[in-house]
């Protein structure tokens, strides 16, 4: 599939509802993730993804449509870049205490469907060591680059946006190393 083609289920959304959040700084967006209203948390996750991918110089392409059951509580956005190793990036943001292996496996499974070169999974909390192991296996053995960003890195990026870039760079060599 050519990189410019989007599979069914991916749309370019109107950013009208999201625009006020895109004008917020990262600290304000992270604070909104603890809000009581589910739709607001979902929009904050989307704004978070826009900010983080902006640090990497990527451009928004589309949004994967989600089942109504999620209520916007998670986000899956697609970005593209021309100056990095990877062209199409999909981003999943999880507002959760712990990112588990199932969350990472789901994103790995969607890489081919969305025509993505790399998946980024951001969690506002901690990342279970088994999820880290699965991402490492996906990068090395299955050639499915999955980058994980935890809440600590996320919070440190408020004052230092390079923290996100450093997290991606630290995980990229495994993705670029040929499988044995």
Account of the 3D structure:
Residues 67-73 have low confidence and may be disordered. The strands form two sheets. A six-stranded mixed sheet has the order 1-2-3-4-6-8, with helices on both faces. It has a two-stranded parallel ribbon with strand order 5-7. The two termini are 26 Å apart. The protein has helices spanning 19-22, 26-32, 38-55, 101-114, 129-140, 151-156, 162-176; strands at residues 10-11, 59-64, 74-80, 88-94, 98-99, 118-123, 126-127, 146-149. Strand 3 and strand 4 (88-94) form a beta hairpin. Helix 2 (26-32) runs antiparallel to helix 3 (38-55) and helix 4 (101-114) packs parallel to helix 5. The chain is 42% helix and 20% strand. By secondary structure, it is of the alpha/beta class. The protein has a single domain (14-176), classed as Trna Endonuclease, Chain: A, domain 1, CATH 3.40.1350.
């Amino acid at each position: 599939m050519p990189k410019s083609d989007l599979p069914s289920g991916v749309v370019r959304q109107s950013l009208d509802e999201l625009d006020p959040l895109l004008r917020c700084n990262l600290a304000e967006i992270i604070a909104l993730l603890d809000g009581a209203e589910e739709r607001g948390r979902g929009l904050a996750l989307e704004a978070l993804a826009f900010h983080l991918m902006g640090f990497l110089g990527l451009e928004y392409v589309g949004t994967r449509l989600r089942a109504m059951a999620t209520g916007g509580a998670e986000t899956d956005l697609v970005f593209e870049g021309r100056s990095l190793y990877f062209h199409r990036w999909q981003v999943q943001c999880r507002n959760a205490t712990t990112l588990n292996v199932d969350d990472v496996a789901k994103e790995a499974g969607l890489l081919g469907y969305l025509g993505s070169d790399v998946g980024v999974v951001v969690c506002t909390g901690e990342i279970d060591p088994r999820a880290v192991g699965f991402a490492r296996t996906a990068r090395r053995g299955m050639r499915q680059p999955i980058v994980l960003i935890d809440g600590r890195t996320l919070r440190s990026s408020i004052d230092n946006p390079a923290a996100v870039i450093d997290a991606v760079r630290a995980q990229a060599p495994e993705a670029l190393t040929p499988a044995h």
